[in-house]
Design goal:
The complex is a heterodimer of chains A (313) and B (179). By secondary structure, chain A is mostly helical. Chain A has helices at residues 23-46, 60-78, 97-116, 122-127, 129-140, 142-168, 181-200, 204-233, 237-247, 252-275, 284-306, and one strand at residues 2-6. Chain A has one domain: Up-down Bundle (Formate dehydrogenase/DMSO reductase fold), CATH 1.20.1630. Chain B has a single domain (4-178), classed as Alpha-Beta Plaits, CATH 3.30.70. Helix content of chain B is 20%, strand content 26%. The longest helix of chain B is centred in the first third of the chain and has 10 residues, at 18-27. The chains are: A mainly alpha (313), B alpha+beta (179).
Chain lengths: 313, 179
């Protein structure tokens, strides 16, 4: 037998760690959505689709800025020493994933603002006519727009993978000790964003393309989840026990039902029927994908905190 | 360059929690939190069960993940003895350091910053032992410098079998337990 008892009773630490509540998964989810939207929007810019009147690259930067700000607000709400948040921007700690993320998030804003310059709000152009001139200058230069597309995709991928690296850099939590958590969050962000754009897109070509792309992302996501689990199961005993939390343990029901079943497999089945013209497209499947992505972050954050180097319950 | 640490004799520790009370008193540890604690571990099969009682705290690791993950540099190695400390007004309370610690040695102080054992550095710099060491009735704890080959802590490690906590986590802890 191995029996451990302790007198420690620190709030939020014992009996199991629970320092991060809803704010962190919400932030990771919104960060992933923004990443996906930036990659999609950047791709359309790169392909020169900005010549289409209803191209999603005109409105996605607005949605991205709103969601990113919402995510950063959630992150701010999580901070325990809120008045000192500015300390993030008085230093750069090269070994800290969170420091990298803070600076990447700051860089995302100007990139999204340049994207917005292609379709600035009328209220702004009325007050500042120079904005219209900048817009005209930008739209005239195809190479600039292609490059903007590449930069937008690059930083979109950066923020997407950062949301996974943030957790996997914390090696004390066995569930997060995976080198492909960044890929899981990036693909999940892409599938959520593709689902979102599929629902709101005005352009028929984009609607169909993103439904097909979403199916591909969901299949890749299933594959990455499988690799994630296999990687943990074949690693150390603590990591194997951490994987069991999702497979058969405390978080298994939520994981299998809401993430795998309702979040990936069923919407994938519905969308496969839709793209093959067996049924009409429905917003139900994309909605399930988006909610599944949110629940995935909640489960990974909660189960990761629960997982531990000491004995796992 | 000093490297401060502790050697704790588990054959002498009776788990009286004097060290815990001394720490709470010395450092005004808020109610509901612990900078140090007693862990009792029973191993084996009846009738050959081994019992180890340990006074545990932050291990002031040489490769401290709490220092490397801190986005503001609030978590840092002190100039004296490489002790891991938190600068209160640099800490934003993001809790990454808490998540990165395999020993769960940190907590969020009610005032918002992250708090933990400091090896009573304010006492050590005055030439005193940490509060927990100074009150131990069985003298099971020894504080000292591992970089000094003639220090008492190094002599103790050479004289007895010992182990550290979770060496497999790779953090190079600086607290050792004599078996």
């Amino acid at each position: 037998m191995n029996e451990i008892s302790t007198t420690r009773h620190s709030h939020l630490i014992d009996p199991t760690l629970h320092i991060w509540d809803w704010q962190i998964p919400v932030y990771l989810f919104l960060g992933g959505m923004v990443a996906g939207m930036m990659i999609i929007s950047g791709y359309f810019l790169f392909k020169g689709r900005h010549t289409e009147k209803h191209c999603s690259c005109y409105y996605l930067p607005y949605v991205s800025i709103f969601l990113l700000s919402l995510g950063m607000f959630a992150l701010f709400l999580d901070l325990e020493h809120k008045l000192f948040v500015w300390r993030l921007y008085t230093t750069f700690q090269i070994t800290s994933a969170m420091s990298w993320g803070s600076w990447i998030l700051i860089l995302i804003y100007p990139i999204l603002l340049v994207n917005i310059l292609m379709n600035p709000p009328k209220m702004l152009t009325d007050k500042l006519p120079i904005i219209s001139e900048w817009k005209k200058a930008l739209l005239e230069k195809q190479l600039w727009i292609k490059n903007l597309g590449v930069v937008t995709m690059f930083f979109g991928a950066g923020i997407g993978l950062y949301t996974g690296v943030l957790l996997s850099s914390l090696g004390a939590r066995p569930l997060w000790s995976s080198s492909i958590l960044w890929l899981l969050f990036l693909v999940s962000g892409l599938s959520g964003a593709a689902a979102f754009v599929h629902v709101i897109a005005k352009d028929e070509y984009e609607r169909v393309l993103l439904a097909k792309a979403d199916n591909a992302f969901l299949i890749i996501e299933l594959f990455v989840i499988m690799l994630f689990i296999v990687g943990l199961k074949t690693a150390t005993q603590v990591q194997s026990s951490a994987a069991d939390l999702l497979l058969t343990g405390s978080y298994a029901a939520e994981f299998w039902v809401f993430v795998i079943g309702l979040g990936i497999v069923i919407p994938l089945f519905i969308q496969l029927l839709a793209v093959n013209h067996k049924i009409h497209h429905t917003p139900l499947a994309p909605l399930m994908v988006i909610i599944g992505g949110l629940i995935l972050r909640f489960i990974i954050v909660a189960a990761g905190q629960y997982s531990h180097w000491f004995a796992l319950k | 360059m000093a490297r401060y640490g502790m050697v704790i004799d588990t054959a002498k520790c009776v788990g009286c929690t004097d060290c815990v009370i001394a720490c709470e008193t010395e450092n005004n540890v808020p109610e509901g939190f612990c900078r140090d604690w007693i862990k009792t571990e029973a191993n084996g099969k009846f009738p050959t069960i081994e019992l180890e009682i340990r006074s545990e705290r932050c291990n002031h690791c040489t490769d401290a993940p709490c220092v490397s993950c801190c986005p503001t540099g609030a978590s840092h190695f002190h100039d004296v003895g490489g002790v891991v400390l938190v600068t209160q007004d640099h800490c934003i309370g993001c809790k990454a350091c808490i998540a990165s610690c395999p020993y769960d040695a940190r907590y969020v102080h009610p005032e918002g910053y992250v708090d933990k054992c400091t090896f009573c550095i304010h006492r050590v710099e005055d030439g005193l032992d940490p509060a927990c060491v100074s009150v131990c009735p069985t003298h099971c704890m020894t504080f000292g410098d591992f970089d000094d080959p003639n220090s008492k802590v190094n002599k103790l490690l050479k004289s007895r079998r010992h182990h550290s906590l979770l060496p497999e986590a790779g953090t190079k802890p600086n607290i050792f337990y004599l078996i």
